[in-house]
Amino acid sequence: MEMMYPELIVYSIIGAFLILFVWRKRKKFKNGIIVANTKYVKKTRYYKSLMLKYRIYNILIKAVCVLLIITCAILTARIYKTDKEEKEEYNRDIMLCMDVSGSVWDLDEEIIDTFIDLVSKLKDERFGLSAFDSSPVNIIPLTTDYNYAITVLKELKKCFENYHKYAIKTSTGRIYTNTLEEHGLVVNPVHEMFEGAFNGDGSSLIGEGLAYCASTFKKDDDRTKIVILTTDDDVEGSQIISVPEAANYSKSVDVKVYPIGTKSIKSAQRQELIEVANITNGNYYDFSSVSTSDIVDRIQKLNKTAIVKNVAVTKKDLPEIIVPYLFYILPALFVLEWRVRI
After folding, report:
1. The pLDDT value given to residue 3
2. What domains appear along the chain, each with residue ranges and CATH number?
3. Looking at the whole model, is its pTM more than 0.70?
């Protein structure tokens, strides 16, 4: 235990003795009536008994007053204790980068479901989500507001469910079984939710999508940066940034990329994604060989070194040590004051 203002104790002791000194120097007969010839009264046993009690009570009152001043000073000086708590914080940013072209929707839907559970278990980590097809768009900026992130992820999950509800699967992908108007749908619910990802020409422009996602991390930040990339790498159209350029850019900003390929991914595209993972010190995973939940668990374990131990120092006041004494001192002072009126 320590005192925040220990000098108050010294000041109170000095002040208490100054008060006693002034008290002793006060005039004895300031307001009373002087009576002559009291020497005979002073010799009586009764008078001597009363004076003895008076002096004892007077000394006790002064002692209690000094004790009260010192007790109040100790209370004002603030006794406290210092607690040191070591906290483990995950010094890590996780960005989910989704290719939202139609051929990747099955993988996207499952990864979203996995991340709804994952985000609810995060602590001190920032999470975000970006999407791309012909153009990249930020859906969830990096945040520790997990309630907000989960709400958005659930909305994304619902839009995929709506799509499946009104569509059937064919060899060319999913198509609507009925007209949109019959179901009150104006646009494809997936396209509506990922508005901005379908602007421009081309499809699965992974180079631009990955580069954009990597650029959302703060530069010169000592946090571990992770991108989980879902794609089939089936690029259609010309890219401003190629896949190798995006991978090298990610490496330059200390971003580790973990690509997850679709079940239908071709060997050439798989090899390119493996190269992306190698360049950025990440790992490649096949959706066909392992579930998304297992993949995310592996990624979590691989990056568990990104834990920072912080020591939180807190000062806690301990007035309960002194306050109980006041409940004894004050009544004692009142009793002595009442008894001294002999």
Report:
1. 78
2. 2-26+35-83+316-339 (no CATH), 92-305 (3.40.50.410)
3. no
